[in-house]
Specification:
Elements: H1 18-37, E1 64-68, E2 72-77, E3 81-87, H2 95-108, E4 114-119, H3 125-136, E5 137-142, E6 145-150, E7 154-159, H4 175-181
Parallel strand pairs: 1-4, 4-7
Antiparallel strand pairs: 1-2, 2-3, 5-6
């Protein structure tokens, strides 16, 4: 018995990518339009150079620093030391007093533009941003109008120095101390 083979014609299947191309055209145009309208706010931070040297011949200028601690804001000058300590509550901060002190410093040193924020390791990001906003400018009511006064727009960031805690001296008498002092057992 002889089987006849039927030749089957295989049809070539065409790939229809029209719907996919329409989707890509719509996505590309949407992304291009959305990219034009999105803007990011950039705050320029000036970090000290690694090989920065102090020139003793220059006159001493205000080197304002704000140390952000868990329970206080320490406003200080790098050359002279502590100017003012503002106690703070982590829940509510007295920004009016904070701005008033910075405004007094700005009136005394009108040419000063920079401040260094020194943060303790536990300082929150939210606190840092709030301090940066209040250090940059403040609102003052003058003659019945609200004016925004620029304080210190140039901000640098660093690590806060550790608090120097005065540790009580332990005056324990040990055999080594007794022998050094000439005390006999």
């Amino acid at each position: 018995m002889k089987f006849k083979r039927k030749k089957r014609l295989q049809e070539v299947v065409e790939l229809n990518i029209t719907a996919f191309m329409d989707l890509m055209v719509a996505l590309v145009s949407f992304l291009l339009i959305a990219a034009v309208f999105s803007q990011m706010t950039v705050v320029e931070l000036n970090l000290p150079a690694l090989n920065a040297k102090n020139n003793d011949q220059q006159e001493i200028k205000l080197a304002l620093q704000l140390v952000i601690r868990e329970k206080s804001f320490d406003i200080q000058d790098a050359n002279l030391g502590l100017i003012r300590r503002i106690d703070r509550d982590p829940v509510k901060t007295d920004w009016a007093l904070f701005s008033k002190i910075l405004l007094e410093i700005k009136y005394r040193f009108p040419e000063a533009q920079s401040i260094t924020l020194l943060l303790e390791p536990g300082a929150s990001y939210k606190t840092m941003i709030a301090v940066m906003d209040h250090v940059r400018s403040t609102d003052v009511i003058n003659s019945g109008t609200l004016e925004t006064i620029e304080l210190f727009p140039t901000i640098s960031i660093g690590d806060a120095p550790a608090l120097a805690l005065a540790a009580p001296e332990v005056n324990a008498q040990t055999p080594a101390n007794d022998a050094a002092q000439g005390v006999q057992p």
